[in-house]
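Extended Data, record Glycosyltransferase WbuB
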Amino acid sequence: MKKVLIITQHFYPEIGSHANRMKHLYMLLKKKNLDVTILTTEPSYPNKKIYINGDFWDEDLLNKDTDHIRRISIKNRKYSNSIFNRLMYYLEIAFKFALLIMKDKHNFDYIFVTSPPIFTGFVGLFAKFKYRCKMILDVRDLWPESLKGVGVFNHVFIIKGFEILEKLLYKKADKIVINSLGFEEHIKKIAGVQDLLFIPNGSIKEELAPLTEKKGKTKKIIYAGNLGLAQNTELIDQLVPFLEDEGIKLTIIGYGVHKKQLIESIKDHKNVTIINPLTKKECFKIIADHDLGLVTLKDKEVFKTVLPGKIIDYMTCGVPIVGIVDGYAKDVINNEEIGLAINEHEPKLILEHIKKLLDDDALRSEMSHKAQQVILSEFNWEININKLVEYIK
């Protein structure tokens, strides 16, 4: 039986697409008769306090699997706008991962390491040489390109150093997995790597929400997910009063460094409901009760390459999407006809697209069914995991 070590900063019971991706990978690889161990951190994203709530620990199989899930504790504060605090957090995790690996007496056939942060990627490289095995690099975001995209870290010489490290990591990997086709050209260009595995974020069949016909004038839209550096929270702020004027309700299930600022800005508007982070299952129930799902990204070149996890969530719940996005995400939404995506940051024009969908029950129903069909055919974990299993076996 092949032995695989997964190294990841985020894992169950944490929320967010990173942790959800690693949870699906871990559980499905074990179902494929692989001996899988995971090295991760104690849950802390977006903050440690929410995991005191036992509702987040809703997977009995994972709760009991203490022999194969190895966690490190972290002292540094992570959830901050400060790039210095974040770097210290990432470095502390990388150091503790490496220390544990250095002392470990086990053997592995494959290391599966996910990046960013790039420091975790280099822990995987260290593990590759320590265990004398192959390394599979899972690229979930282009780093350091995304650092430049969020505009908080633009020191030219340091960025250049990170780019050199990024190229080295790509070249030393035995196989590269990408979760967005938008990454393909960049990785092939800078590292000369041709044979990539595309395994997108996705869902499993049992997660699909039952579809119900949403008729009438409910006019409810939802934003579920990160309110961070990459998301255009300023646009949400500008959009709220226009939605209020049209009697359109907005639900936000959010977390992230810009959450507090956004809530403070829109608190006086009666059409907005703010909900604190929930388990995936509870979040899906609420999403499915809405007419539309909203997704925004800042208008930067690097964000044209990504497919935000909330798009997958909306599709799983059968909720048509209004996307203020460009590039790969825009193409998926428009080409698959599961919503309307525009690269337009004028609130009045966005409102017109929202109203167009809210006024057409038949079109939304058609988009709902198409969204879940796309999940089953293109973003189905139970099918896509076979690409990785075939490589390992």
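Summary. The domain at 205-377 is CATH 3.40.50.2000 (Rossmann fold).
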